[in-house]
């Protein structure tokens, strides 16, 4: 035993010295230094879905919104990533119990957890993205995905040369249905003869299924695919890139964020972006001003600048097409066109 | 005569594993041109000693000298550099490779970028001719006989320039004829100034070929004797440490009723080949029927068919008057057939079980020890203690893991369990494989004892001595058929060996042979 | 010197050293990332014992880990590698969901029926793999992985077809009568999701120990797992035993699913992938050495590391991944015990040379 201790004790000592000597307190997900003037005693938290805060999609977008808020106003912001369904509630409660002024759930899958906590903690304020929770202490932010999808539909309808376009959805759920119906309406508005091939992979995280879905649709003659399928979409880009490199002129329309930044300009025609960061920022700002939209659904469309086509669209979309897009944008904003949601 | 000087010397070698001393102050000298036998029971420390010489273990104390130079052998490559070669008991050959490919493996002669097979084959052929090994460098190892494979191993060491050859139990896998050939080869090797260490526990071979013999017991050198000045009895006593008898005392058998009869049994293997080809025989109460034959001629298939472990193609098996050919293994046991399997580690024991758990392998589910599904530990403990005592099983206790016990004691566990089932017929397959002299004696006595109690015993063994020693009748299996039937007093190991190799001898000593064309 | 004796048992020493090394490696990674490991580990401990709510939620985290560990372990004991616990969990959830939403029964009975039906479904799901292996010789690793997918997608289909909640990616809620939550305890513990399943976990642990070590059925399992050739020799029907054991393994997995539906969420989500608890179970079984007590302890440890990881994340800003690094490192050292045994061996040898009086348990390399 004494011998064993001789081995263990120095090990422990070395480690503790290391700990004492080299540690510093910098954290990546809490930037407490205030680098702007103003009221910096508000605290904002967010809990992602089972993805990661670096998902290049809505979780990341929401976190960027909060980071922007911190940069502008010096608020404390922090996130937690639950690793399983069971951890969602404890994670939200972590913020609630630590007295955070507003805690975001950044995906529709957190709806039940947010509802539960909102009802048991009436004095706390919560926010949810992509779903509606009818509680006075919850701000719900949704997007009119159909409106943005309409615009990329217009682009697809005018750009296609084979007169066939495709849509790949993750799961057949209401929010994805809005993408599909907006896209269809947009294509039909400018190109009534175009054929639209619809495919649901049933999964948001299966790159292989995205690739095979894309392969099927391109083989059927389509030259543009719009996807609303999360990570599954990576497979679509992959398939398109391979076809592009073998001389096949095919396009992908990205989703949620400007995906040309990830997948390059070879095959990314444009992206339908959801400005989750913008929404999170706005609602959080409203809280600061004492106008927290609790119990309300903030639905952000083209008018509210919640959805849009990617700012880099002019790289691959012709100016004439973009002009038509602007026309339709105006019509939707003015209420001349009502985009269907299913 | 060759110039006598010491080529290998161990001085005061001690090797410990934890608190177990495997070798203690070993002194050993090997002279040039001699065959030096290393004799000892299993676990006496022979293998540890040779593994130290071959660089697989490091001694805790002591020195090794080669040609009077002190050396440190810390891995087998160093051993090979010093001219030490080892012919392992289990061949280390790559079956799909040719003989040449196997021999040059790891030290391929290069011609530019490619391997010079032609040169290698020529060298190997030359070596083979020089020592009368008669191997074909181009044959595939998978296609050649076991004896031939062993010679390939020998050439492998010679090709690597070995002057000191260590043979680890080289005759365990050979037929009597092959053993004779091997012994001749060894004589030629020493005549060519090689030196040989022969590890074995077969006294007969030592007496036949060795010049000197070093006896090891419990990690210590007991003695080194000149063969010309000793005899088997003395060697055996030195090895075991007490007086031993070789010939199992037995009275002539008094066979009574037929207990087991096998009629026209056919067993096929996966390739639809007849492994057991229309065999008929019977075993009576109070007799030992020995099944002789070279491994792979249908013995294991025969036993597995009788015990229900293997499906039968056709034929009948009767235990007394009861048909058992369509019963499952458990029912066959319960009908009264016990089975000491040929491979105790594979079949007979669960090595990671304790002694007592192994004792109940056949009746763990029976009412005598199970209540409401729970095994009654006390009863099991009691049974185990009784059997440990009755069969003199050397173990720390019923809860000791079988894996930690010696081969002889492991075998005793099986024998105790099988005989305690009180069977009418006992099928014993190689019951003394790998056991030392003391344990062999115990097993043989027990078999004869049970015979005298009226049990019918079917004994399968590859050791001719055992067959001749124990059997009342002998049947010889070749290629799935009974090629001959005889009794020990009417035959010799020479004749049995010829039959085992498939040579049919008409008439001379055995009358009951079937007339099978070869 | 009793402690000394204990420490010489490799089965205990290896996991302890593995855990220590895991924590040290985790600390090194934190240092590399610029985090303070002391603060992180303190936050972790504070998280798991900080409040009654946290203790309750820790229990909720531990319960499935233990069951999953037992499910893997009992399959392992019969010589099978059950990667299919995830699928069995799903079938358990589905069974509980069907009973919980479709039947109307009095309250306590409803919960019991739902748990039993879910466990049964999970058991049957496991038994399929056991049958395919035992009777047809089809590798259980492949079949269980495939069965995971079949379970996942058929659960999607079933939920959408019969029990959907409009506008969401989950099923409708179970009826109140089917809930196995212990409401008063839950209220006492700040709303932590405490359910009767905890009691079942304890019972299953006890069952596992006695069934495996004391009964004739357990004997059969161990013979089959340790030496399948011996079963042939002794006339033990190993394929039947494999089916039975995989049924029990699936039963354990199914229980996890029923607890999730009836005690934690009250619904079943249409999730894109399986829960991964089954894989955690492999680690738990491995660390716990397939013994009941070991699995209990390993489950608690992994529960602390998993649940405590969010404390590290919140309190010290350490990303969740560090918690995973610690767990992975522990598994690495446990599953590659050669490394630690080698160190121990050298260490002991050295000890031996200086102190010849030392007593050691056994010699691994007899002469």
Structure summary:
The complex is a heterotrimer of chains A (342), B (518) and C (367). Chain A is an alpha/beta fold and 342 residues long. Helices cover 43% and strands 18% of the residues of chain A.
Characterization of the model:
The complex is a heterotrimer of chains A (342), B (518) and C (367). Chain A is an alpha/beta fold. Chain A has 2 domains: 43-143, Response regulator (Rossmann fold, 3-Layer(aba) Sandwich); 145-274 and 307-333, Response regulator (Rossmann fold, 3-Layer(aba) Sandwich), CATH 3.40.50. Chain A has 11 helices and 12 strands. In chain A, helix 8 (233-245) links the parallel strand 8 (224-228) and strand 9 (251-256). In chain A, helix 2 (58-73) runs parallel beside helix 10 (276-288), helix 3 (88-97) packs parallel to helix 4 and helix 7 (207-219) crosses helix 8 (233-245). Mean pLDDT of chain A is 85; it is low at 1-10 and 12-38. In chain B, 32% of the residues lie in helices and 26% in strands. Chain B has 518 residues and is of the alpha/beta class. Mean pLDDT of chain B is 86; it is low at 506-518. Chain B is globular. Chain B is built from 17 helices and 24 strands. Chain B folds into 3 domains: 6-240, 3-Layer(aba) Sandwich (Rossmann fold), CATH 3.40.50; 256-336 and 423-518, Rossmann fold (3-Layer(aba) Sandwich); 346-422, no CATH class. In chain C, helix 5 (85-102) crosses helix 12 (238-265) and helix 13 crosses helix 14. Chain C is built from 16 helices and no strands. With 367 residues, chain C is mostly helical. Classes of the chains: A alpha/beta (342), B alpha/beta (518), C mainly alpha (367). The interface between A and C is large, with 51 and 55 residues.
């Amino acid at each position: 035993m004494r011998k064993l201790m001789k081995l263990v004790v120095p090990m422990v000592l070395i480690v503790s010295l290391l700990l004492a000597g080299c540690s510093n307190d910098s954290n990546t997900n809490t930037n407490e230094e205030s680098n702007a003037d103003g009221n910096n005693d508000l605290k904002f938290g967010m809990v992602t879905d089972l993805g990661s805060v670096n998902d290049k999609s809505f979780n990341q977008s929401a976190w960027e919104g909060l980071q922007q808020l911190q940069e502008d106003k010096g608020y404390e912001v922090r996130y937690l990533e639950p690793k399983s369904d069971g951890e969602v509630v404890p994670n939200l409660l972590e913020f609630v119990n630590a007295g955070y002024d507003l805690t975001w759930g950044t995906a529709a899958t957190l709806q039940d957890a947010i509802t539960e906590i909102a009802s048991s903690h009436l004095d706390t304020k919560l926010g949810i993205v992509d779903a509606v929770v009818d509680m006075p202490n919850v701000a719900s932010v949704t997007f009119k995905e159909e409106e943005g999808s309409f615009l990329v539909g217009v682009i697809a309808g005018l750009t296609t040369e084979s007169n066939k376009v495709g849509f790949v959805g993750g799961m057949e759920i209401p929010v994805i249905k809005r993408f599909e119906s907006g896209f269809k309406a947009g294509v039909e508005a400018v190109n009534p003869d175009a054929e639209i091939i619809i495919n649901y992979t049933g999964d948001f995280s299966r790159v292989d299924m995205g690739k095979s879905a894309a392969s099927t649709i391109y083989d059927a003659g389509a030259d543009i695919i719009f996807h609303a399928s999360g990570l599954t979409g990576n497979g679509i880009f992959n398939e398109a890139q391979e076809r592009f490199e073998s001389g096949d002129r095919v396009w992908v329309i990205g989703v949620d964020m400007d995906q040309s930044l990830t997948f390059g300009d070879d095959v990314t025609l444009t992206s339908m972006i959801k400005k989750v960061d913008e929404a999170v920022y706005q609602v959080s700002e409203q809280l600061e001003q004492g106008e927290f939209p609790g119990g309300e659904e903030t639905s952000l469309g083209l008018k509210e600048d919640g959805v849009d086509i990617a700012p880099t669209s002019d790289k691959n979309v012709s100016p004439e097409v973009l002009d038509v897009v602007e026309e339709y944008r105006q019509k939707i904003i003015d209420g001349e066109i009502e985009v269907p949601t299913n | 005569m060759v110039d006598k000087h010491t080529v290998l010397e161990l001085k005061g070698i001690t090797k410990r594993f934890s608190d177990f001393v495997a070798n203690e102050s070993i002194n050993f000298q090997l002279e040039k041109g001699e065959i030096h036998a290393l004799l000892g029971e299993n676990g006496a420390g022979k293998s540890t000693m040779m593994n130290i010489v071959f660089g697989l273990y490091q001694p805790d104390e002591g020195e090794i000298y080669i040609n009077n130079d002190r050396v440190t052998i810390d891995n087998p490559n160093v051993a090979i550099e010093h001219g030490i070669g080892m012919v392992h008991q289990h061949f280390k050959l790559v079956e799909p490779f040719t003989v040449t490919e196997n021999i040059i493996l790891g030290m391929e002669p290069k011609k530019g970028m490619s391997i010079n097979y032609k040169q290698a084959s020529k060298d190997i052929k030359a070596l083979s001719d020089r020592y009368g090994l008669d191997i074909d460098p181009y044959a595939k190892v998978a296609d050649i006989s076991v004896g031939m494979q062993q010679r390939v191993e020998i050439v492998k060491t010679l090709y690597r320039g070995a002057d000191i050859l260590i043979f680890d139990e080289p005759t365990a896998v050979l037929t009597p004829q092959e053993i004779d050939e091997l012994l001749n080869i060894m004589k030629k090797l020493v005549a060519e100034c090689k030196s040989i260490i022969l590890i074995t526990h077969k006294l007969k071979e030592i007496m036949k070929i060795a010049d000197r013999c070093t006896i090891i017991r419990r990690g210590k050198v007991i003695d080194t004797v000149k063969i010309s000045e000793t005899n088997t009895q003395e060697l055996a006593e030195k090895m075991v440490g007490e007086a031993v008898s070789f010939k199992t005392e037995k009275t002539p058998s008094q066979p009574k009723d037929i207990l087991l009869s096998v009629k026209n049994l056919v067993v096929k293997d996966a390739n639809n080949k007849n492994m057991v080809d229309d065999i008929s025989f019977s075993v009576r109460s109070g007799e030992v029927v020995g099944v002789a034959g070279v491994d792979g001629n249908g013995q294991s298939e025969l036993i597995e068919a009788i015990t229900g472990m293997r499906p039968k193609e056709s034929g009948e098996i009767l235990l007394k008057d009861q048909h058992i050919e369509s019963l499952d293994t458990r029912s066959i046991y319960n009908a009264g057939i016990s089975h000491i399997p040929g491979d105790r580690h594979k079949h007979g024991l669960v090595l990671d079980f304790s002694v007592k758990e192994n004792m109940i392998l056949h009746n763990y589910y029976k009412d005598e020890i199970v209540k409401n599904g729970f095994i009654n530990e006390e009863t099991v403990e009691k049974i185990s203690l009784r059997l440990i005592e009755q069969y003199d099983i050397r173990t720390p206790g019923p809860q000791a893991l079988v894996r930690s016990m010696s081969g002889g004691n492991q075998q005793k566990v099986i024998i105790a369990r099988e005989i305690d089932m009180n069977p009418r017929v006992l099928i014993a397959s190689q019951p003394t494989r790998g056991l030392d002299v003391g344990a062999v004696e115990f097993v043989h006595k027990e078999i004869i004892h049970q015979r005298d109690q009226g049990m019918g015993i079917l004994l399968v063994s590859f050791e001719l001595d055992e067959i001749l020693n124990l059997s009342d009748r002998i049947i010889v299996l070749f290629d799935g058929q009974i090629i001959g039937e005889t009794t020990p007093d009417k035959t010799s190991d020479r004749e049995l060996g010829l039959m085992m190799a498939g040579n049919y001898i008409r008439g001379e000593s055995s009358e009951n042979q079937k007339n099978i064309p070869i | 010197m009793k402690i000394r004796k204990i420490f010489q048992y490799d089965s205990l020493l290896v996991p302890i050293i593995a855990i220590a090394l895991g924590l040290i490696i985790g600390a090194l990674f934190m240092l590399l990332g610029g985090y303070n490991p002391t603060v992180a580990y303190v936050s972790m401990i504070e998280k798991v014992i900080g409040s009654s709510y946290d203790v309750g939620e820790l229990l909720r985290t531990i319960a499935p880990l233990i069951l999953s560990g037992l499910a893997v372990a009992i399959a392992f004991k019969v010589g099978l590698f059950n990667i299919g616990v995830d699928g069995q969990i799903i079938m358990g959830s589905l069974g509980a969901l069907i009973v919980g939403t479709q039947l109307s029964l009095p309250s306590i009975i409803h919960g019991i029926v739902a748990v039993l039906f879910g466990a049964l479904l999970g058991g049957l799901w496991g038994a399929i793999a056991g049958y395919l292996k035992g009777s047809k010789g089809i590798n259980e690793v492949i079949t269980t992985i495939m069965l995971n997918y079949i379970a996942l997608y058929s659960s999607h289909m079933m939920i959408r077809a019969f029990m959907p909640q409009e506008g969401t990616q989950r099923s409708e809620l179970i009826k109140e009568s089917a809930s196995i939550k212990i409401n008063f305890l839950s209220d006492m513990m700040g709303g932590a999701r405490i359910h009767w399943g905890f009691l079942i976990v304890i019972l299953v642990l006890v069952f596992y120990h006695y069934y495996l070590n004391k009964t004739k059925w357990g004997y059969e399992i161990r013979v089959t797992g340790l030496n399948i050739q011996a079963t042939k020799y002794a006339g033990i029907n190993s394929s039947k035993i494999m089916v039975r054991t995989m049924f029990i393994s699936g039963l354990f997995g199914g229980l996890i699913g029923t607890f999730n539906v009836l005690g934690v969420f009250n619904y079943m989500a249409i999730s894109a992938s399986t829960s991964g608890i089954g894989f955690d179970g492999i680690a738990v079984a491995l660390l716990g050495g397939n013994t009941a007590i070991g699995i209990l302890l390993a489950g608690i440890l992994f529960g602390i590391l998993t649940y405590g990881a969010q404390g590290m994340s919140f309190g010290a800003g350490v990303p969740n991944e560090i918690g995973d690094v610690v767990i992975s490192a522990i598994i690495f050292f446990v599953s590659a015990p050669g490394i630690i045994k080698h160190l121990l061996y050298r260490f002991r040898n050295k000890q031996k040379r200086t102190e010849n009086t030392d007593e050691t348990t056994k010699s691994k390399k007899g002469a």
